[in-house]
Amino acid sequence: MIENIIYKIEELKKEKNAIILAHYYERPEIQDLADYVGDSYYLSKIARDCKENTIVFCGVKFMAESAKILSPEKTVLLPNIDAGCPMAEMADAETLAKVKKEHPNAAVVCYINSTAEVKALCDVSVTSSSAVKIIQNIDKDEIIFLPDKNLGEYISEKFPNKKFILWNGFCITHKKVKVENIESIKILKPEAKVLVHPECEKPVRAVADFIGSTGEIIDYATKSLNNEFVIVTEEGVLHELKKRNPTKTFYVPGTTMTCVNMKRTILEDVYESLLYNQHEIILDEEIRLKALASLENMHKLGG
Ligand code: 13P
Ligand code: SF4
Question: Which partner for 145 in 5, 31, 152, 279 could form a disulfide, CB atoms 3.0-4.6 Å apart?
Answer without folding.
Answer: 152
